[in-house]
Write a structure and sequence with these properties.
The protein has 161 residues and is mainly alpha-helical. It has nine helices and four strands. Helix 1 packs across helix 2. This is Calcium-binding protein CML19.
């Protein structure tokens, strides 16, 4: 995993990081879809497949199934330094959270609708929660869907920023 650590240096020029990003933006859209992001994480940053899958879900904070350059740059400059995959206990917790999330993401769009959230909350024992109000509370991006990142902030199984 050491291959990509130089990109995390706060002195790494933005143009170098942009070059890395553009290398994987095959469509030229200015964003990386999950396949492109997973390729970048595995090929240039040295992630294993399961690690890349977890991080691609975490980095997609708004659940739009793409990562902008600004989101990617902010993560690289955040000082996070692979924290979640270097701590095996945290990584296993994240894997369980991904499995839980995917179980209730029945339309496989990497977000939860209000109905999907209700099923997830019921499974966790929150049967009396006002789902509509709770959904609005969790939906920080106010886009009508709950991303994995938004759910993780609430679950607080690991600290996400």
């Amino acid at each position: 995993m050491q291959a990509g650590t130089s990109f995390f240096d706060s002195n790494a020029p933005t143009i170098v990081i942009r070059s890395l990003f553009d290398k994987y933006d095959k469509s030229g859209s200015g964003t990386l879809d999950s396949t492109e992001l997973n390729d970048l994480l595995q090929k240039d940053l040295g992630f294993k497949k399961d690690q890349a899958n977890v991080y691609s879900m975490l980095l997609d904070k708004d659940g739009d199934q793409s990562i902008s350059f600004e989101e990617f740059l902010a993560w690289l400059r955040s000082g996070e330094r692979f924290e979640f995959i270097q701590d095996q206990k945290q990584f296993q917790t994240l894997c369980k959270a991904v499995e839980l999330f995917k179980t209730y993401d029945t339309d496989n769009n990497n977000t939860l609708s209000q109905d999907e959230l209700k099923l997830l909350l019921d499974s966790l024992g929150y049967k009396t929660v006002d789902v509509k109000r709770f959904f609005e509370y969790l939906d920080e991006h106010k886009n009508g869907k709950i991303s994995f990142w938004e759910l993780m902030k609430w679950l607080n199984w690991v600290t996400v920023k």
